[in-house]
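Collaborator request log, item 7. Partner lab (contact: R.S.) asked for a structural prediction of 8-amino-7-oxononanoate synthase to inform their binding assays.
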Amino acid sequence: MKKDFKHIRNFLAQQQQRYLYRSPRLNHSPQQPDMVIDGEKILTFCSNDYLGLANHPELIQAFQQAAANYGVGSGAAHLINGHNIEHQRLEEALAAFTGRERALLFSTGYMANLGAIGALTSKGESLYQDRLNHASLMDAGRLSDAKMWRYQHSDMNNLQQRIARSTDTASMIVTDGVFSMDGDCANLKELANIATEHQSWLMVDDAHGFGVLGETGAGLVEQEGLSSDDVPVLIATLGKGAGTAGAFIAGDHDLIEFLIQSARTYIFTTAMPPAIAAAGCKSLELMQKETWRRNHLQQLITQFKQGADQLGLPMMPSDTAIQPILVGGSDKALCYSQQLLSQGILVTAIRPPTVPAGEARLRITLSAAHTTQHVEQLLSALGKLNFSTEK
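Returned to partner:
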């Protein structure tokens, strides 16, 4: 009997009718502000390359040299014979950079989150997640044996109430550091206090803070002055602020050894290419050497926020490089995005299920590779739009 794909066709049609259909754009350029996308020269404000390192010549050189030395693929999982000296160097550098005993590499942030939560939670335990956590954290919670509870976004009272109602013997609190679609930061100090009070683990996914926040760029945990005792499980990606690819979990020696033995997304997959790890090491060097990148990015954020305020744009509260404009309906978000594109600027429309229904937005992201003139051009284009937040 032939498989009927009618339900698939119906779903695709419904996605189009609801203004939720997505298609990848074809990129012909390195990651940088001025790009060629779908054959058109475009000024982009949608990349997570916050420090502008993705196309840095020293990263390219480090990658090329490592590829010449070790080839392209790692060939095997870390626990077989795929753990290259470049992986080891990067893990040691990440541990030192974040002030922790050990670090463990994963191929993606998604895999790091699935691996950590799957290994560190068990049946009969509770997992508490902020409602706006990244999809990978939510998926990890659903796939785990723990009972998952979602508390209202950054609502510490709601979290306390949920923990108080639980009869489970052990628990873990999980949060994004910087929330990827809103740009606001978790209240890590209060979360650390609650975790200590209830003898819970606190796990922070600092994908959008790593490299950008903190005195040295080590992230939100550093910015808030918290230690590994406060945040035992720190996760971050290397494909955003670091400009490369992959992710890591950092913590004490026993935690990392436990994950090596237990995290399925570490054990049962091929290690990242050694050349990516070599580029990651060079990225950490540049983060600490080229501090002007974080300073310049902060200046651009201030410039944009002041300009957006003068224009009366419906901005969401954020002090990070993620600056969302709340517009409401998905059709409106697409319309505004298209109007910007007609002016030569790419800002993507973020729609459900990435964000809640009725909260579609334009997600503007700034990079140290942008100039003040780029931001002025963006503000000028936004000033020509007639924003409405009706759903």
